[in-house]
Write a structure and sequence with these properties.
The protein is about 0% helix and about 45% strand. The chain is mainly beta. The chain has a single domain, classed as Jelly Rolls (Sandwich), CATH 2.60.120.10. This is 5-deoxy-glucuronate isomerase. Pfam families: KduI. One of its GO terms (molecular function) is glucuronate isomerase activity.
Length: about 250
């Protein structure tokens, strides 16, 4: 079912097969000087999970800080320069070339792409920032960031979308806190993983709720990759009915 990797295990290119997936790939990129990445036949989404760095792609240059994202189209290269930055680079096969884009967290945070889900009374309140949503030009990606509350649940009620979208979670900015990530089709055979800063979980299918510890909420990047290119409906999912009829 799921694949759980610690930070040192993500420093190489992780193919879809490595992750138990069909389309999505990932790799941690430590930027200590200059790094050049080539997209080839994959569209890329780079997420800064620590530090800051400068970039150049096509004729565009700029600076990214933690929680910013970069979308890199197929058949392009991007140059990253920094002294102590960490990125997660997601990839997905794509047949069409879209435009490069720097998506600052500060930009997403102040508009309608910043969503609040859940309820404080049952411990499911969380913030979700939809960086690459259905309106963003991309072949397969739906990507964003989720911050849960201390001791709170996210991805609730449990839901699944394996027939439509694979998913990868990368946890970041968590300090010394930890969380528990569940993945299952049937609760009687559920898998649960303790996750901390920098860990990665791939989710080919199944329900995938998670919970933070009392000293800190879960914080993670999500990257959904569509099984069918162009089919990118965030709410095309099925909840576990005993826990809720719709994503709240």
């Amino acid at each position: 079912m799921a694949v759980h990797l610690k930070p040192d295990e993500t420093k190489r290119y992780l193919s879809p097969e490595d992750l138990g997936l069909t389309y999505g790939s990932a790799m941690r990129v430590d930027v200590m000087d200059e790094v050049v990445l080539k997209s080839g036949d994959r569209e890329l989404c780079l997420v800064c999970i620590s530090g800051e760095a400068f970039y150049k792609c096509q004729d565009e240059t700029g600076k990214v800080v933690m929680a910013d994202m970069l979308y890199v189209p197929i058949e392009e290269k991007i140059i990253l320069k920094g002294e102590n930055a960490v990125f997660i680079c997601f990839g997905a096969p794509c047949s069409k070339k879209y435009g490069f884009r720097h998506i600052p967290f500060a930009e997403v945070d102040k508009d309608s792409r910043h969503k609040i889900y859940g309820q404080e009374k049952n411990g499911t309140l969380r913030d979700v920032w939809n960086f690459i949503d259905e309106s963003f030009p991309s072949g397969r990606f739906l990507t964003g960031i989720c911050y849960g509350k201390n001791g709170g649940w996210t991805a609730w009620p449990p839901h699944e979308h394996g027939a439509e979208r694979e998913e990868i979670y990368v946890y970041f900015n968590m300090g010394n806190s930890f969380g528990v990530q569940c993945v299952y089709n049937d609760l009687q055979s559920a898998e649960a993983y303790v996750v901390t800063d920098g860990h990665l979980i791939s989710i080919p299918e199944g329900y995938h709720p998670n919970v933070g510890c009392p000293c800190g909420g879960l914080r993670y990047v999500y990257c959904m990759v569509s099984v069918t290119e162009g089919d990118r409906d965030f709410m095309n999912l099925r909840t576990q009915k005993i826990y809720g009829e719709k994503l709240e």
